Amino acid sequence: MNVSDKATQIEPSPRTGAGAPTPRTGAAILGAAALLEACGGGSSSGNPTSGATNPTTPTTPTTPTTPTTPTTPPAGPDAALLASFEAARFLQRAQFSSSEAEIAAVKSQGAAAWLDAQMALNSSTGGYDWLMQRGYGVIDSNKFYEMEYQSNYMAWFQIMAAPDGVRRRMALALSEFFVVSGAGVGTIKWAMFAMGAYWDVLCQNAFGNYRTLLEDITLNIAMGEYLNTLGNQKEDTQTGRLPDENYAREVMQLFTIGLLQLNIDGTPKIGANGQPLETFTQSDVSNLARVFTGYQQDNTDGFTQSAVAPTYTMPNVGYTRRPMVLNASRHSSLKADFLGASVAAGTEGKAALKIALDTLFNHPNVGPFFGRQMIQRLVCSDPSPAYVTRVATVFNNNGKGVRGDLASVFKGISLDTEATSAAGLTSTTFGKLREPMVRTAQWARTFKATSLKGTWKIGNPNYSAVDALGQSPLQAPSVFNFFRPGYVPPSTAMASSKATAPEFQLVNESTTASYINYLQNFLPNGMWVRAPELITSPDNPTATDGPDIVPDYSAELALVGNPSGLINRLNLLLCAGQLSAETVTMMVNALSYDGTNSTSPDNSKRFYVAKAIMFVMCCSEYLVQK
């Protein structure tokens, strides 16, 4: 599909049970059903600190019934439904979800025109302002200035409910490439705001230029703290001190050029000795590190006193959204040679930074290195060399002589023929495992979840091996993200073909069961929150504890007792029609044995809907996004 085609339409494609490439899901469906039925239709004791629900058991038990007639496989979809499936397929990659209105808009406008309009929207309320609006910028006995945890609330709101879903989807993908984790910035004051400001940098630059983004993240205070640019000093011959090399190494290895020289299709270049060629040496790291010395926080906003004795002087919160500033007396004046470039001795710090970032930005590796990982985050885990070539070519030149145009890159990834072709639906080598945090964001957006008290107190759901999601935005365990881009699951069919599947690095027996339990906890009534009316979280239970981040299942509740209608709706909105006929039949039959109907108590009907959603969200044909 030509990226420049402004009237691009999504390519219709057939759906047949026989052509579905992913494994059948009877075990997952029956397992989910067993879990729900064994727990009183899905009730759970809940966990006060997990951000999951503590639902109430249905007032009237559901009586299983036998369907009067066997369910037959549904007829094949008509042309209009196929077009809806393809629009939903596009939307679920370009953002997080696909509402009926959005599906209609894409069908009417065409994917390219719709995407252009979405990318042109201004960024909505960012992370820093969101935290400030909720009162976390006050200086009082709560000591918010010493906390980072509330950045979880901010980040989850941003991907679950911010109105500009396309921009937020790209920002989330960027956050897994230019990684800063909240777990690594907690030593600075106002750490939650530092994370909010970092998220804002990603959102504001999501459809700007890569070179601008590279400089903005380099000077961001959260990145400075995370990778040691903040306070990094020049060499001292008397003490033997040398510039910290952390950022110099990671900006090359992870943020720009990678470890190996690449062809434009992302494959490694091979030297005369038959081995891959490396991109940089230790000398490059040591020399480049000199450029990143002398940077410190900008204290233009002044200082204040902490609120609790013993008090101390600390910066006002505004410093967290200001770029770091250069202290020339701490900046190395030595000559720096790296990657074939040279910064002359005595070069002023800002000029040295420009040379360094320009050198990195213009390196031929950046297009394929960055492009392949963005394809992995947005479309498929193991993109073909041809796909990488097309995206890297757009990065190198957007058709107007501009290098690093991120809007063109995003559009190129989203509308590429490999992404939209019907062939991907039946290919055993195309697609990606949906990341856990993306699944949760999709649930929230699909069912219009909202925080009743407006606090959005979703913690980091990673701590439990029993009922945890295993992933949380802006909370990667290290600068290497949640998984490696080159990860190949061992002892699998993918291993035999050396196919990369990064997200599978999160998958094992424990995380699989934990994910099912996590869904079971919140699907019926929403996410359980302690004292949702407060911006703090008391240690002990309160009278107001309960579901606060709640979905709107009104459309689904209207289909209770109509299992075929309900599963077909979920197939469109959650799976873009990618459930096979066999799987749809299996789910419909399972629901048909449930006696819940339109006259049942409201709580029973909610558990019926939750059961159907759980069937889908635990199904491999949902989990593997085509």
Kindly summarize this structure in a few lines.
With 626 residues, the chain is mostly helical. It is built from 26 helices and 11 strands.
Written account of the structure:
It is globular and about 80 Å long. With about 625 residues, the protein is mainly α. The chain has helices at about 25-40, 80-95, 100-110, 110-120, 125-135, 150-160, 165-175, 190-205, 210-220, 220-225, 245-255, 280-290, 350-360, 365-380, 385-395, 405-415, 415-420, 425, 435-445, 495, 510-520, 555, 565-575, 580-590, 600-615, 620-625, and strands at about 295, 305, 315, 325, 335-340, 340-345, 430-435, 450, 525-530, 545-550, 625. The longest helix is centred in the first third of the chain and has 16 residues, at about 80-95. The chain is built from 26 helices and 11 strands. Strands 8-10-9 form a 3-stranded antiparallel β-sheet, with no helix packed on it. Strands 1-4 form a two-stranded antiparallel sheet.
Quick tags:
disordered N terminus, two-stranded antiparallel sheet, 626 residues, 26 helices, single chain, 3-stranded antiparallel beta sheet, globular
Q: What amount of the residues lies in strands?
A: under 5%
Strand order of the largest sheet: 8-10-9
Structural class: mainly alpha
Show unreliable segments: 1-71
Helix content: 40-55%
Number of helices: 26
End-to-end Cα distance: 17 Å
Q: Quote the average pLDDT.
A: 89
Total DSSP E strands: 11
* Net shape: globular
Report the major sheet.
Answer: 3 strands, antiparallel
Q: What is Rg? A: 26 Å
